[in-house]
């Protein structure tokens, strides 16, 4: 079992003992998503793969929050934000804009990229470095702005 998955499982037990229903619900969702991916792919996820699952859950929560705010459903926004806080406990520290920009600049210099045709190559290089530490959508937008 990966370290991160073991930590999440242990946190589940602690939340159940503390009778913290929102935490139990959120941690169960995380474990359920991990288990679903393991069953679908017939593998046991390592820490990197667990982080990918967590990143996906964060993106889903952010999308839901935006949609619920647009619909004026503040009650649902509060639920999603509470889940997001718990899910974010399992993510590594996120890189700052300056750190991401520096990594993109370095990748452009190292690869010799000069046009949008090199976008895929750059994303391949940066995905390994930044996965889980930065939103890859914003990294992609940054690359586009620097190459155009």
UniProtKB/TrEMBL annotation:
Give UniProt keywords alphabetically: Transferase
GO MF terms listed in the record are:
carbon-nitrogen ligase activity, with glutamine as amido-N-donor; transferase activity
Membrane recorded as keyword: no
Keyword flag Chaperone? no
Source organism superkingdom: Bacteria
Q: What is this protein called?
A: Glutamyl-tRNA amidotransferase
Give the organism, scientific name: Candidatus Thioglobus autotrophicus
